[in-house]
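stage 2 :: seqdesign
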C-alpha cells in the first residue's frame, strides 16, 4: 500500500499581439501537440491497421439525458466503438451559421471568421472555461483584436455583440493574462483575472477592475501563472515559475490565507479541484522511477507522489470534484482516480497499442460522471482504435460508456490547431478551435450543441 508523505508547505495567515499566434496563454508550448511539456517518447508502432469504417450512424445510441440542462432527443448519441470515416468536411459556414456533423448528427456553430479578425481566433484551453455560468456570455481570443467577449443565446445558438476586453491596463498598470481568465461562479458578467501577482475581479460590461488581493509579497516577487479556482470562487491556485523559483501558491479568500511551496526543482503546472481541497501538481518530469505528479491535500498538508511508471501517472488531465481524469504515459489509457485515494486507478478508455492520437480533457461541467475528450493527430503512427480527431465523452465510473459528439476537422500543424475542447458548466455546449481541414490556414472558434 502506498502512503502519503506529510510535508510542510508554508501557511500564512494574513490581516489585511504577435503575428504567428496569440501571446503566451500561460501554457508551456514545448511539445508538438501538447500544451504542457509532455515528452512521451514511447514509439510503439503497432502495425495493426484495422481501419474498418462504418458510416451508419443509426447504431448504438444513448437515449438518456445527454447532460444536465440538455433536453434528450429520441435519436440519442452514437455510443459504439467503431472506427468512423469522417468523410468530406461540411461546407465551411460563415460566422453565425451552423453545420451538421455528418457522422454524429450534432449541430456545430461557427463563432468567428475573417470578419471578426483578419488572421485567426482561438479559445484558451480544455480546462479554462469559454462560457460563463449561465451560457449568456463567452470569451475567446483573436490575434489582432485580443480578448473578446460575446453575448450568447444558448436556445438559438447565437453569438452577438463582440466586444474587446482588457482595453485599458489594470489600475496597477499591467496587462492581465488572457489565457487563464475564469468566469465567476456567482456573477455572469464577471471574470477572475490576474496581473502578475495581483488577483482582480473584472467586470466585462463596464471594463472595470476591482482588486481582490495583491499577492506580491506572498509570492516573494515571483510571477503567478496558470490560475485555477474552486467551484465556489473561494480558493485560487497558481503555478509559480521564473528563473529563480519553481513551486505553487494557493489563496483562500474566506480566511485571507495563503499556502505555498516555492522550493521545487521544477514544476510544469498545478490545478485545484472543484472543492478547493486538493491540488494536482505536474512536475514536468517523466520516466521510470520519476515522480511525474503529486496530489496535495491542502487541509492536512499530505502529499502523494505519483511515480510515472508505477502509479500510471498522467500528462494531460483535468480535475473535477475530488477526482482527476487523465491519460497515463505508460499504459496509454484514459484513467480516473479519487484524489483522496490516488493510487487506486480506474480505466475509462484504453488506447491499447495505438499511439496515433494526443488528447485534451475537460471536467468543467458540474456533472463530472462524464469527461470530455478531444483527440488530434500529430504523428504518422497507424490507427487501430476509434476516436481519432474526434470530440467525445466518456464515463468516469469505469463502465466504458462513451458518447461520440463530433469530428473537429482540424489538421494539426502547430499548437493552436489542436481542438483543446472544453465543456460548459451545464454540460450542454462544447467549444473547440479548428482550421477546418486547411493545414496552415486560419483557425476559428466553434461550438457544438449537445441538446438533441
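stage 2 :: out
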Amino acid at each position: 500500500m502506498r502512503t502519503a508523505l506529510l510535508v510542510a508547505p508554508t501557511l500564512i495567515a494574513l490581516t489585511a499581439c504577435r503575428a504567428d499566434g496569440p501571446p503566451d496563454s500561460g501554457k508551456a508550448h514545448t511539445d508538438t501537440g501538447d500544451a504542457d511539456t509532455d515528452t512521451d517518447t514511447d514509439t510503439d508502432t503497432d502495425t495493426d491497421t484495422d481501419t474498418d469504417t462504418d458510416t451508419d450512424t443509426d447504431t448504438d445510441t444513448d437515449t438518456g439525458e445527454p447532460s444536465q440542462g440538455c433536453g434528450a432527443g429520441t435519436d440519442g448519441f452514437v455510443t459504439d466503438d467503431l472506427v468512423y470515416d469522417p468523410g468530406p468536411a461540411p461546407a465551411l459556414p460563415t460566422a453565425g451559421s451552423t453545420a451538421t456533423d455528418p457522422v454524429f448528427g450534432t449541430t456545430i456553430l461557427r463563432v468567428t471568421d475573417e470578419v471578426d479578425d483578419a488572421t485567426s481566433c482561438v479559445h484558451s484551453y480544455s480546462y479554462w472555461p469559454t462560457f460563463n455560468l449561465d451560457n449568456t456570455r463567452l470569451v475567446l481570443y483573436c490575434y489582432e483584436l485580443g480578448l473578446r467577449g460575446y453575448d450568447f443565446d444558448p436556445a438559438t445558438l447565437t453569438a452577438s455583440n463582440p466586444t474587446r476586453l482588457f482595453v485599458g491596463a489594470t489600475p496597477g498598470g499591467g496587462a492581465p493574462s488572457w489565457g487563464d481568465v475564469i468566469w465567476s461562479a456567482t456573477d455572469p458578467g464577471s471574470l477572475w483575472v490576474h496581473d502578475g501577482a495581483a488577483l482582480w475581479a473584472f467586470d466585462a460590461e463596464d471594463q472595470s477592475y476591482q482588486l481582490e488581493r495583491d499577492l506580491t509579497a506572498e509570492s516573494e516577487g515571483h510571477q503567478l501563472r496558470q490560475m485555477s479556482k474552486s467551484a465556489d470562487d473561494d480558493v485560487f491556485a497558481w503555478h509559480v515559475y521564473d528563473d529563480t523559483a519553481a513551486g505553487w501558491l494557493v489563496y483562500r479568500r474566506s480566511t485571507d490565507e495563503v499556502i505555498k511551496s516555492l522550493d521545487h526543482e521544477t514544476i510544469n503546472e498545478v490545478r485545484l479541484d472543484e472543492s478547493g481541497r486538493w491540488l494536482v501538481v505536474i512536475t514536468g518530469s517523466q520516466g521510470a522511477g520519476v515522480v511525474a505528479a503529486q496530489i496535495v491535500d491542502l487541509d492536512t498538508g499530505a502529499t502523494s507522489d505519483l511515480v510515472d511508471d508505477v502509479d500510471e501517472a498522467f500528462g494531460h488531465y483535468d480535475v473535477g470534484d475530488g477526482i482527476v481524469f487523465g491519460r497515463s504515459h505508460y499504459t496509454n489509457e484514459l484513467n480516473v482516480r479519487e484524489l483522496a485515494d490516488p493510487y487506486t486507478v480506474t480505466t475509462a478508455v484504453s488506447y491499447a497499442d495505438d499511439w496515433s492520437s494526443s488528447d485534451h480533457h475537460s471536467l468543467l461541467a458540474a456533472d463530472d460522471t462524464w469527461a470530455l475528450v478531444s483527440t488530434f493527430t500529430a504523428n504518422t503512427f497507424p490507427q487501430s482504435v476509434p476516436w481519432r480527431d474526434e470530440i467525445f465523452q466518456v464515463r468516469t465510473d469505469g463502465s466504458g460508456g462513451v458518447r461520440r459528439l463530433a469530428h473537429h476537422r482540424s489538421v494539426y500543424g502547430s499548437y493552436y490547431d489542436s481542438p483543446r475542447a472544453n465543456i460548459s458548466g451545464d454540460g450542454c455546449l462544447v467549444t473547440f478551435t479548428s482550421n477546418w481541414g486547411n493545414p496552415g490556414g486560419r483557425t476559428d472558434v466553434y461550438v457544438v450543441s449537445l441538446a438533441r
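stage 3 :: structure notes
- The chain has no helices and 33 strands.
- Residues 1-8, 12-21, 28-59, 63-68 have pLDDT under 50 and may be disordered.
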